[in-house]
Amino acid sequence: TNGGLCCRQQFYIDFRLIGWNDWIIAPAGYYGNYCEGSCPAYMAGVPGSASSFHTAVVNQYRMRGISPGSVNSCCIPTKLSTMSMLYFDDEYNIVKRDVPNM
């Protein structure tokens, strides 16, 4: 047991479930994971200090009421990775982009 302290929970983000599969070609989703538990002040991140694509995706899950557990901002990750994506832009061109901090 971690004594109720913040720890990582596995969470698969499925773009189909949030209606983004009409513009995202690949991947179909990714493991976005989240933190759960209490975070002492010295461990907690500052909410809203860093906007990212991952934050936007998790917020889409929250708005649709399909987020697991209590997906709240608490501890911050120690490592983030870049994810390659293929998607349609506004003019229906296929774009490959490496999205940082996922």
Automatic annotation (TrEMBL):
Pfam families: TGF_beta
Keyword tags: Disulfide bond, Glycoprotein, Growth factor, Secreted, Signal
Domain TGF-beta family profile, residue spans: 1-102
InterPro entries: Cystine-knot_cytokine, TGF-b_C, TGF-beta-rel, TGFb_CS
GO molecular function: cytokine activity; growth factor activity
Domain of life: Eukaryota
Coiled-coil segments: none
GO cellular component: extracellular space
Subcellular location: Secreted
Transmembrane segments: none
Record PANTHER family: INHIBIN BETA B CHAIN, TGF-BETA FAMILY
Family per similarity comment: Belongs to the TGF-beta family.
Protein name, as recorded: Activin beta-B-1 subunit
Organism of this sequence: Carassius auratus (Goldfish)
